[in-house]
Design brief:
CATH topology: Undecaprenyl pyrophosphate synthetase
Strand content: 5-15%
Order of helices and strands: EHHEHEHEHHHEEHH
Number of strands: 6
Radius of gyration: 19 Å
Number of domains: 1
Bound molecules: 3-methylbut-3-enyl trihydrogen diphosphate, magnesium ion
Helix content: 40-55%
Number of helices: 9
Largest sheet: 6 strands, parallel
CATH class: Alpha Beta
Distance between the termini: 34 Å
């Protein structure tokens, strides 16, 4: 069982460096189309942006970085695009794990992994094992992930663990369910970033985003890097996180 997540803080935390940043990496296709390139060229370039961003976040002292790489809805795309995305995932796992180890980064992959081909599943497990003891930053890749799937699988896992809950549903609590969410190894995200100009969640971490600060940028994901990250972090520092309280209460807390 993974560590239990931090509950929504009782006291607002002063906005500084977010502990957990979650990013919807969007706009690869449009980045490529603008350049008259095939969409998959944007995905390839997007992998480079992942590398740069992981390093930049680790330098900023962010403890948890979660990247949305493939949604449960992305299977609806043309088969050849899906297949290129799977190839890129495989290549990235083959190439990057050594560097993750060198940089002290622990890798976790969340989502319905069992839908992937055997080789990819094996690479995921190996990469997780080989980086399991790293402590500088946890990089979570959401792959074949959907926020609704996550809630449903957590309910199933909870009921399986404690069948008595079926007879007494009042025993079902937010905390009990949180422990079974796919991201139970991380606190709830402090900052959500979406690139590519769309302002929507697209079935990302529905449960965990309850009190997250949102930042949207028109920058396409392949162009994302330390500069846009810095703007997002600056915006985050200016926010007042009230968690239901009044501004005056926050000031005296
Ligand atoms: C995000 O970029 C990558 C994935 C969803 C896998 P898109 O491929 O969605 O790029 P746009 O939104 O079509 O530009
Ligand atoms: C969200 O992007 C999923 C990922 C970034 C992996 P999409 O491009 O699939 O989102 P929609 O379909 O435009 O909402
Ligand atoms: Mg998109």
């Amino acid at each position: 069982m993974s560590l239990s997540p931090d509950p929504i803080p009782i006291k607002p935390t002063p906005a500084g460096v977010p502990r957990h940043v979650a990013i919807v990496m969007d706009g690869n296709g449009r980045w490529a189309t603008r350049r008259r390139l095939p969409r998959v060229a944007g995905h390839a370039k997007g992998v480079e942006a992942v590398r740069t961003t992981v390093e930049a976040c680790a330098r900023e002292g962010i403890e948890f970085l979660t990247l949305f790489a493939f949604s449960s809805e992305n299977w609806r795309r043309p088969a050849d695009e899906v297949s290129v995305l799977m190839r890129l995932f495989i290549t990235a796992l083959e190439r990057e794990v050594t560097q993750l180890r060198a940089n002290g980064i622990r890798l976790r992959v969340v989502g319905q992994i069992d839908a992937f081909e055997g080789r990819l599943q094996r690479l995921i497990r190996e990469a997780e094992q080989r980086t399991a003891n790293n402590t500088r930053m946890t990089l979570t890749i959401a792959a074949n992930y959907g926020g609704r799937w996550d809630i449903v699988q957590a309910v199933r896992a909870l009921v399986e663990e404690r069948p008595e809950l079926v007879r007494d549903p009042s025993l079902v609590t937010e905390d009990a369910l949180s422990r079974h969410m796919a991201l139970a190894h991380a606190p709830e995200p402090d900052l959500f970033i979406r690139t590519g100009g769309e302002q929507r969640i697209s079935n990302f971490m529905l449960w965990q985003l309850a009190y997250t600060e949102f930042y949207f940028t028109d920058t396409f994901w392949p162009d994302f890097g330390p500069e846009v990250l810095a703007s997002a972090l600056a915006s985050y520092r200016d926010r007042e996180r009230r968690f239901g309280r009044t501004s005056a209460q926050v000031a005296t807390a």
